[in-house]
Specification:
The protein is mostly helical. It is built from ten helices and no strands. It has helices at residues 2-10, 12-38, 40-48, 52-57, 68-100, 104-108, 114-143, 152-179, 185-204, 234-257. It is globular. The model has no long low-confidence stretch (mean pLDDT 85).
Amino acid sequence: MNIIKRELRSSVISIVVWSLAFFFMAYASIIKFDSILSTGPEVMALLDHMPRIILALFNMVDLDLTSLPGYFAVVANILLIMASTHGLFLGIRLFAKEEQEKTADFLLTKPRSRNYIYLSKIMAGVLIVLILQLVLFLCNWNALGSHLPDAWHLLIHYTAVFAVIHLLFLSLGILLINVLPRGKAESVGLIILLANYLIPVIADMSDTLYVIKEFFPFNMFLHEEMANAGGLQLFKLMILILALIGFLVLGQRKFEKKDIYV
């Protein structure tokens, strides 16, 4: 419990900063949508003249930005990147900071098993993610207030997606820091993050590669059907949940045998 409290205390500033970022993104996006509604035909005409690569970069290919489901898919893409970035580097930081701060001996010399330390840090990471996801849900709920209850399914479905993908990249960060050589986790994690964003962008620009974008977490759920009852594809969500559990189990096995520099 002391480990969990210590991790939460050390993350207060980070939680506040990310909460403000989510707050700004949620409100700014809905304000922008309301302005788009008043100039819908002009906006669509402008998008029709944009190069496909620009549309692909912002996940706007084949989406109707004058409808809330289409527009929110674009917003969700940005929120997913934000949540994934936070989760990835949170997972890395949870297990790297003792070595970086030269305090690993203090953590390991106490009568605690490595399994206890590992589980405590995971619980701390999950709590931080859930706090931020609660903030994001409340921001989106409040920002979408004028569109409720019609947007209720959209809100609930994307909330589940945000939480699972946030936890997926948290578990990926935990796996990388415990599997890779010292100092490599950040760069490899960043490459994986960029690949998950850029490969679907490249696929979006091709009629033949278009279908592969559905195999990447950021793009699995970014479609207008998310606003419908049953629009969330639970099979895909379960695959991601199984993947994050697998990352955590493998990370635990590596942490048990890992050489920790004190």
